[in-house]
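so my prof wants the structure for this chain in the tokens format not the other one, which i didnt know existed until like an hour ago. anyway here's the sequence
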Amino acid sequence: MAGAVEARLAELGLTLPAVVPPLASYQPAVQSGVYVYTSGQLPMVDGKLAVTGKVGAEVTPDEAKELAKTCALNALAAVKSVAGDLDRIKRVVKVVGFVASASDFTGQPAVVNGASELLGAVLGDKGVHARSAVGVAVLPLDAPVEVEVQVELIDA
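here's what i got, hopefully its the right format
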């Protein structure tokens, strides 16, 4: 039975995906006390990157913003994999977004807004968080964007 958070995802026309399997030696998410930390989530859909390249070159900022939403959805799946139920989320504490950027691209915050806006739409006030948006030269698999999330749970 889906909880309130997953019901809200459905209202938004979204489905929680399967957890993206690790690409190397790490776990998609770990819990420490009342916190869950996700590994960096790529915009994988059905095990594949739909788009590769640098934002501001091969990938438009608007495309990258949509990809950041996919990363956030994958992060929620990773949180659920260790928390068991997304309704246990007390709040999103921190989001870190990495944007593979063309040398002259400076719109990283607008790209990472895709993740922030998705978390807000799904979780309401619980989705309001601190954040960093960082431009980088390259990301794994030539992904345009990667997002990691830290959440606090209602209980350990």
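also thought this was worth mentioning. The longest helix spans residues 61-83.
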